[in-house]
Amino acid sequence: MGEKDGEQRKNGDTAMTANNVFGFSFYAIYDNQLQSRYKDIFGKVEATIFNREDLMGAAWDSVWTNTRHAVELFGGRNTSFHFPVNNSNIVTDPFVRSRLIETLKRSEELGIPHVVIHANQLYLLEECKHQNLKELRSRFLDCLQEVIYQAGSNVVVCLENLPPIGNLYDDADPVFLFTEDFQEIDIQNVGITWDICHYFNTVYTMHYASNDPVFRDMLPSYQPCDYMDFTRIINKIKHWHFSAFDQMANPFTETICREGVLPVESCVEESMYQKALRLIYEDAVKSNKAIIFEIAEKDYTHRYYVLQMLEWAQKVVKEHSFL
Fold first, then answer.
1. Is there a contact between 37 and 306 (Cβ–Cβ < 8 Å)?
2. pLDDT beyond 60 at 152
3. d(C-alpha 10, C-alpha 196), whole Å
4. Buried/exposed code over 215-240 (b: 16+ C-beta within 10 A; e: otherwise)
5. CB within 8 A of 89, min separation 6: which ones?
6. Distance of CA 271 to CAs 87, 213, 277, Å?
7. Which residues are CB-contacts of 188 (< 8 A; sequence separation ≥ 6)?
8. Are 121 and 175 within 8 A, CB to CB?
9. Kind and range of the H or E element at 208?
């Protein structure tokens, strides 16, 4: 690859990604989840890691080898990086904090514009009621601001909204759930990754709670909301996650939430996902934002459902004259 070609790849100035804002995610410790054939199908890609262990030793080396390969395939501008979500609290864990600083530096070197992060302020449901969420939010943001300062990079850290109850109905990361939780954030190089699956889960749960006082009292927080509320903060949203969920996590019925399904499988009407996609697609194309499909697969080396998701999405936007 010549110098000019390499620079084009880093910047994403390639015909195959023109106006293609749809992308997929892969578990970045595994090279076989990133197949080169997808560069002709998707315009964006997200390198994702899940666990604190992924930040260590050989796994960490593999993460960046595979992330670099993603950049070679899709271009740095079209690649994002998702920091881990399990046992990865930057406020209380200096090692995790140092890895986030390193992640921001490495991402800038590769031309990656966005690093996605959860607050990772995880508590058992029975503990959540005793937490001051405003204080937790402030402490997390203060720590994040210091991390960004120490990294000295221009990469945008995108905070992701989460559902009010974890999928296994026993815990929650309750700091950033509602649009109001994000409205007062004013930190340089901090944006939002808005996850439609998570927010539809939140809205569905709040609607259910409005008719069940016992369930409502169990929640970490309760607030009336609606599916398209995210449009209030769309100017702060830099990056999108899109998928659907089926079944609301419920500790009373011991019901597990299933994330990463197709909209046709959701307990929320498919038409709501169609409406949301039209809104976010228009925003994404206008500002070259990624819409990452986080779709569960039986075999991530032979993907099937994410291709169905792409076909569904293309049909939705085509029917409304976006394509």
1. no
2. yes
3. 28
4. beebbbbeeebebebbeebeebbbbb
5. 96, 120, 121, 122
6. 36, 29, 10
7. 148
8. yes
9. helix 196-209
Of the listed ranges 38-42, 95-99, 218-222, 317-321, the one predicted with least confidence? 317-321
Joined together, the tokens standing for residue 170 give 């026993």
Please give the angle made by the CA atoms of 228, 231 and 233, to the nearest 5 degrees.
135
Whole-structure pTM value? 0.93
Written as six digits, the tokens of 79 are: 């690649």
pLDDT band of 129, cuts 50, 70, 90: confident
- CA–CA dist 195, 292 (Å, integer): 9
- Higher-scoring residue by pLDDT: 131, 269: 269
Q: What is the DSSP letter of 255?
A: B
Q: Please tell me the distance from the alpha carbon of residue 15 to that of residue 308, in angstroms, as a whole number.
A: 23
Q: Is the dihedral of CA 53, 54, 56, 57 positive or negative?
A: positive
Predicted confidence (pLDDT) at residue 73 exceeds the cutoff of 50: yes
- What average pLDDT score do residues 85-103 get? 97
Beta strands per DSSP E along 153-200: 156-160, 171-172, 190-195
Residue 81 has pLDDT above 50, yes or no: yes
How long, in residues, is the chain?
Answer: 323
Task: Report the phi/psi class of residue 321: left, alpha or beta, with left for phi > 0 and alpha for psi in -120 to 50.
Answer: left
Q: Which of 13-17, 61-65, 118-122, 147-151 has the lowest mean pLDDT?
A: 13-17
Question: The tokens of 181 are what?
Answer: 């939780």
Angle at 32 between CA 26 and CA 35, to 5 degrees: 75
